[in-house]
Amino acid sequence: MASIPGNPLGYARDIAEGNAPLTAIQLKRMTEEELRKVFVNVNIVLREVRTTAVTDRDIDGMRRRAHKLQRLNTALMLLETHAKKLRIHL
Questions:
Q1: What confidence tens digit (pLDDT) does each residue in 22-70 have?
Q2: In 10 A of CB 68, how many CB atoms?
Q3: Which own/partner contact pairs does 48-53 have at CB distance under 8 Å and 24+ positions apart?
Q4: For residue 10, how many other CB atoms are within 10 A of its CB?
Q5: What is the Cα–Cα distance from 63 to 45, expressed in whole angstroms?
Q6: 2-10 long-range contacts, CB within 8 A, separation 24+
């Protein structure tokens, strides 16, 4: 796995934090198996972020959670469209 840096779950968490962007160039370098692993791990992190509770008055916490959700949903959309182009079933 040369194109996934380190642990796939850690990579998905880095995507959520904004430390590791997921681009179309990176997707082109990934194999079919790597695409599936990243897809599964992004869904795991997305589920984790959705289940985290934020208090009503914590505006910064709500903002951070919303940004994480946005980054993860964008990553999923990129993965799905790239896989659809290559006719890969995720």
A1: 899 989 999 999 999 999 999 999 999 999 998 889 999 999 999 999 9
A2: 21
A3: 49/16
A4: 14
A5: 17
A6: 2/29, 3/29, 3/30, 3/31, 3/34, 4/30, 4/34, 4/37, 4/38, 8/34, 8/37, 8/38, 8/40, 8/41, 9/41, 9/44, 9/45
